[in-house]
Amino acid sequence: MVSKPKLRLSFMSSSSDRVAPLIDGRIQPEGIELIHTFGGMSEGAWRHLNFHEFEFHELSISSYLISKEQGADWIAIPVFPHRSFMHMGLHYNTDSGIEKPSDVVGKRIGVGEYQQTAALWMRGIMDHDHGVSQYKVHWYMERTEEMSHGGATGFEPPEGISFQRVPPDKSLASMLLANELDIASVNPAALNEPGGQGPNLVDRSWRIQGQGDLSKIKPMFPDRIAEGSRFFTEHGFIPANHTYVIRGDVYREYPWVALNLYNAFVQAKDLSVRTLSARMPTDLVFGNDYMRQTRAVFGNDPYPYGVKANEAMLNTLIDYSHEQGLTKNRANIEELFAPITLGL
Prior knowledge:
Elements: E1 7-13, H1 20-23, E2 32-38, H2 41-51, E3 56-60, H3 61-69, E4 74-77, E5 90-93, E6 108-111, H4 117-128, E7 138-141, H5 149-153, E8 162-165, H6 172-177, E9 183-185, H7 189-192, E10 217-219, H8 224-235, E11 242-247, H9 248-253, H10 257-274, H11 276-279, H12 287-298, H13 311-323, H14 333-336
Parallel strand pairs: 1-2, 1-3, 6-7, 6-9, 7-8
Antiparallel strand pairs: 3-11, 4-11, 5-9, 5-10
């Protein structure tokens, strides 16, 4: 019997332990050959929003909500490859007078991009959990219009927002160190170490390093385990920032790909979980103890896939997008994901 050729799909995604088995071929979707292109999350989303280059790709959930409302021709599967407590990326300059989250009111705060999912989560959590309204701070955005997600979706600052762009010869890192920003979402490695965040097309922090006293830069939430545990206990999820979408022309011709791709992602994640102990670096002396501590707080699967397991997280994100003025209407989960995946 002659085997039926597989459907070849161009695929762009960042890598992680949960996605790597699909990228390296250990797990293969039934009937599909994925032709993978590596790319960082920010660069990949920019390429998809502007050029629709790939038939299947990773995309910012916030930009997906915005573009979907505008009529973008793609459909998602309920796979969420990356999660973190994104408000914990905030670092402040001690000269700002900030000592606790509520002190951020009235301050200058920097983000890579206003509409990106990380910033959406950060604003929502700082507002609902820590009492810092988005209308009571001064926002600075690093990405230029040409290299931002918002450049493709027609972003304009919501009414009532104090909004400025970071000058092209500066970055979040340089401005935070110079006390030209009071607080910003930054990777500490980007502050004084060349290449700290790694090169990509859209972000400039890796290009423009700051000059200043690094000892003055402190995390807004120094006890990350305590704050993460608090959030998870109160809300029941770890925020996700990306999902995967299928280009509309592909989905209409081959609707079966949605379930086959979803199943493959589940298999890849299961493989990652099963082999976690064997892959743990031996330099992590207390690695197994930390893994037990992690599972005691978050359970055996901190990265659940499917609509049902993520309904609270998705509804929160949809609410944040609407109340922050990024989407005019509150999206329905049923309109965002391929119908065959809604019961998963």
